[in-house]
Structure formats: structure tokens, C-alpha cells
Design brief:
The chain is of the alpha/beta class. It contains seven helices and ten strands. The chain is globular. Bound molecules: adenosine-5'-triphosphate (ATP) and magnesium ion (MG). The site of magnesium ion has 4 residues, from α1.
């Protein structure tokens, strides 16, 4: 299988303003990796190491200082509906629109016909059938996340970039949403990059795992042989967990 998404020698610096003098500060330092279609790459890493910045570059919301992002062999320069970023800590729903209107919004913006049927189908996929007419304030945190994912999926993107999407939720709700992500992946051709602080979450969801170091590099990259598992009694699980932990916790 060909590599679907190629990240090649990516660098990025923010220009910090120090008393009127611009000083570049390196955040991404020569990152390269490839992702195959239908895989789910989890990116782990300490706070501030550049995970969100990396996703913004992959979504073409921020241009890299050097290097390139290729998708299906083509260099990406501008944002498009094929790559959707679900932002960190963002309540993505429009409070003045109900669930079906929120989910239909990107379809309306893209002038897609048969919007209601598409929206109802996605609502079914994220298990929100019966809540089509609810406004966001009447939904639980987990339901809002489901609706946000549904809206991101409405235009059938190829690549979904999820930036710590479930960080604020309780353990039970997170578990349900993990199952939902795996279910959606099973039913579609979606490729996912999922940023998280949580090693358990990464191991449960990922086909591949990359750990970013503090200095904006990829410290460790591996295939995940424990997808769908969160049980320390499974042979090799705790060694794998500890290995990932050691790279996140590097001094
Ligand atoms: N718009 C910006 N201007 C200047 N510096 C920024 C900007 N956004 C982020 N940074 C800095 O770049 C570095 C990387 O930030 P980024 O948000 O990518 O980290 P992160 O790994 O996503 O962190 P977290 O896990 O806390 O979300 C941090 O030092 C941050 O302060
Ligand atoms: Mg972040």
C-alpha cells in the first residue's frame, strides 16, 4: 500500500515579540513521517511540544517554515474540506442551530444536495437518532462531541485531525467515544490523526503511535499491536505502555 500522507522534513518557528524585536522560536524541528490510508496515528507528547501546531500545518492552516506535506502524492498548500481539524477545547456547535442544522451546515456551505438524508445517516452513525431537533445546550458533553464529530464527517473528509478531542470528558463517556471512533473507521475509508496526552487512549485507538519530544521532534514511532486493548494483564501490554511513557517523560 502506498503512503497516503507524507510529512517531509517539516520545520516551524513562531516569531515571538520581545520588546518589539521579533525572535524566532523553533517549535517543529525536522519532523518526517508517513501514514497509510485508513490508519489511525495517535500522537503523544508533553504539553507545549508542538502537537497542535503540527496538526495546523497538516491542515494547511499554518504554512511550515520549511518542508512539505503531501497527500496522495500532491503537495498541500491550502485548507480544503478533505482535511478537517477538530480543535482542542472547542465547543464546535453553533448554539443557535439544532443538531441536524449544525450537521447540515457544511453540506449547505458546499451546496451538496440531499442534505437531510446525509445528515440523518451520520446522526445514526454517531448514535444521536432522536436528538435531531435538540439545541446544543440540551445535550450532554459526550453528545456534543458526537455531534461535533458528525459535523466533521458530514462532507466525507479523507483525513480527520482530532486535537485532544475527549480531554474534558469523564472516563465512561470517553470509552463510548473511543468505540465510536473505531466503529466509524471500520465503516469508512477515513484516515485519522489523533492527538492525546493519554497513553491508554492512544494504545486503544491507534494503528500507529508517534511520540513527540519536548524539542519538537518525533522521539519514537511504532506500529501498535494492542489496538482495542486496555488491559495490563495482556502479555507485553505493560512493557509497551512503559516504553511509551519513558519517551513522554524524557528529561
Ligand atoms: N500563536 C502562537 N504564537 C506564538 N507561540 C505559540 C502560538 N501557539 C503556540 N505557541 C507556542 O508554541 C509551542 C507549541 O504549542 P502547541 O500548542 O503546538 O503545543 P501542544 O503540544 O499542542 O501543547 P498542549 O498539549 O498543551 O496542547 C508552545 O511553546 C506554545 O506556547
Ligand atoms: Mg495542543
Amino acid at each position: 500500500m502506498n503512503d497516503y500522507l507524507e510529512i517531509k522534513n517539516l520545520y516551524f518557528s513562531y516569531n515571538d515579540d520581545n520588546q518589539g524585536i521579533k525572535e524566532p522560536r523553533k517549535v517543529i524541528d525536522n519532523i518526517s513521517f508517513n501514514i497509510q490510508k485508513k490508519s489511525l496515528l495517535c500522537i503523544l507528547g508533553p504539553s507545549g511540544c508542538g502537537k497542535t501546531t503540527l496538526l495546523k500545518i497538516i491542515a494547511s492552516l499554518v504554512p511550515p517554515s520549511a518542508g512539505k506535506v503531501l497527500f496522495d502524492g500532491k503537495v498541500l498548500k491550502n485548507p480544503d474540506a478533505g482535511r478537517i481539524l477538530i480543535f482542542q477545547d472547542d465547543n464546535q456547535l453553533f448554539p443557535w442551530l439544532n443538531v441536524i442544522e449544525n450537521i447540515s451546515m457544511p453540506l449547505r456551505l458546499s451546496n451538496i444536495n440531499g442534505r437531510e438524508k446525509i445528515a440523518l445517516d451520520i446522526i445514526n452513525k454517531v448514535h444521536l437518532t432522536g436528538f435531531e431537533n435538540y439545541y446544543p445546550h440540551r445535550l450532554s458533553g459526550g453528545m456534543k462531541k458526537r455531534a461535533g464529530i458528525a459535523r466533521a464527517l458530514a462532507t466525507s473528509p479523507d483525513l480527520l485531525l482530532m486535537d485532544e478531542p475527549f480531554g474534558s470528558l469523564d472516563a465512561q463517556t470517553r470509552k463510548k467515544l473511543h468505540k465510536l471512533v473505531l466503529e466509524i473507521k471500520e465503516k469508512t475509508d477515513l484516515t485519522v490523526i489523533f492527538v492525546t496526552h493519554d497513553i491508554h487512549e492512544a494504545i486503544f485507538l491507534a494503528t500507529d503511535i508517534a511520540v513527540m519530544g519536548k524539542s519538537g521532534t518525533i522521539a519514537y514511532q511504532t506500529k501498535n499491536n494492542f489496538s482495542g486493548i486496555s488491559d495490563f494483564s495482556v502479555t507485553g501490554f505493560s512493557d509497551f505502555y512503559n516504553k511509551l511513557y519513558s519517551f513522554i517523560d524524557e528529561p
